[in-house]
Amino acid sequence: MKNRLKLLRTERGLTQAEVADRLGVSRQTVHAIEVGKYDPSLPLAFKIARLFERRIEEIFEPDEHDLARG
């Protein structure tokens, strides 16, 4: 899944650790989401959307592989 988490985080001048603290996850989890190695659970995706005051669809987008799996 593609996402804009790193862009949104850096626009706000936040570190991965700061975002992780606000979301109640590890810094490693934030990193893994940013680089596309981990897709967040739906509850975590909602937390991320609330943190950045965006809709989930504005942050996360399925990539071609996700769409092919249907």
C-alpha geometry: globular
Rg from alpha-carbon coordinates: 12 Å
Classification by helices and strands: mainly alpha
Please identify the oligomeric state: single chain
Please characterize this protein's 3D structure:
The protein is mostly helical and 70 residues long. 61% of the residues lie in helices and 6% in strands. Helix 2 (16-23) crosses helix 3.
Quick structural overview:
By secondary structure, this protein is mainly α.
Please describe the structure with a list of short key phrases separated by commas or semicolons.
single chain; 70 residues; 6 helices; globular
Detail the topology: elements first, then pairings:
Elements: E1 2-3, H1 5-11, H2 16-23, H3 27-34, H4 42-51, H5 56-59, E2 60-61, H6 64-69
Antiparallel strand pairs: 1-2
